[in-house]
């Protein structure tokens, strides 16, 4: 068996502490080896479950360590490209939080840097590693709902009470489209293999950050509609409607947090088949898939080229709304 991938984390973000650090610690073929933070208090939240974790006082110090093979980047959006490139220059593989860029044009340099370094760089788009999304893609591809005609998505939460949250701050690349549009847009692209031909959008802003968006799009074979908001009661759902059935992913994005991962497949005979995926941790699966790609070269489910397509759709939505 090959040596495990030794992971370092740039920054003690809450999301990293709650989800990705435990996932790295639990994943097969992975070791949580380093954390870069100058806060002893924040570091304690990580060493509580990973007592052997080495804490670095700076991002640069972690990147300089020969004992780190790959880094996870949970920094604010506007810092993703900068620190991904620095990690590559230091010879580290990179798994960076979404969105990995602020605009599609930034992918040119990232892809070039990845190719020049010969290392794996990917956006932390965990849902494509979840079996519910692989099953959804297979069912639709196999004709379980007939010909796909319409996709409807919703992803909402309300963080109005946290004005200093990075999602509510324009200088850190906040906004709903970048935070959750990646899910409704990307999941549709993943399942169908299609790209939007045109996009329309109505977007509402607060403090120069988009907090509500109604986005519609024409894909080659179907019509798309979704609502995204950081100011609405929490809800998430994706529905794929064909001429012979309808498939609904009831907890598409936050499995085990928002609820249990399930697929409801309604058939033309009015029967419903429910596929359940209890206890599956897509963060752990993501780390394991990343490590497998690093070790064996097997294609990764979410390469930069895929993420580029989702960012293109986000850019199209902003442009359609006059931004």
In short:
The chain is of the alpha/beta class and 323 residues long.
Report on the structure:
With 323 residues, the chain is α/β, with parallel strands linked by helices. Helices cover 33% and strands 29% of the residues. The chain has 2 domains: 5-124, Rossmann fold (3-Layer(aba) Sandwich); 127-283 and 310-320, Dihydrodipicolinate Reductase, domain 2. It has helices at 14-26, 40-47, 59-64, 80-89, 107-117, 131-141, 176-192, 282-296, 304-320; strands at residues 5-10, 30-36, 54-56, 70-73, 93-96, 121-123, 148-158, 198-206, 209-218, 223-229, 231-242, 245-249, 261-267, 272-277. It is globular.
Topology record:
Layout (H helix, E strand, L loop, with lengths): L4 E6 L3 H13 L3 E7 L3 H8 L6 E3 L2 H6 L5 E4 L6 H10 L3 E4 L10 H11 L3 E3 L7 H11 L6 E11 L17 H17 L5 E9 L2 E10 L4 E7 L1 E12 L2 E5 L11 E7 L4 E6 L4 H15 L7 H17 L3
Parallel strand pairs: 1-2, 1-4, 2-3, 4-5, 5-6, 7-10
Antiparallel strand pairs: 7-11, 8-9, 9-10, 11-12, 12-13, 13-14
Helix pairs in contact: 1-8, 4-5, 6-7, 7-9
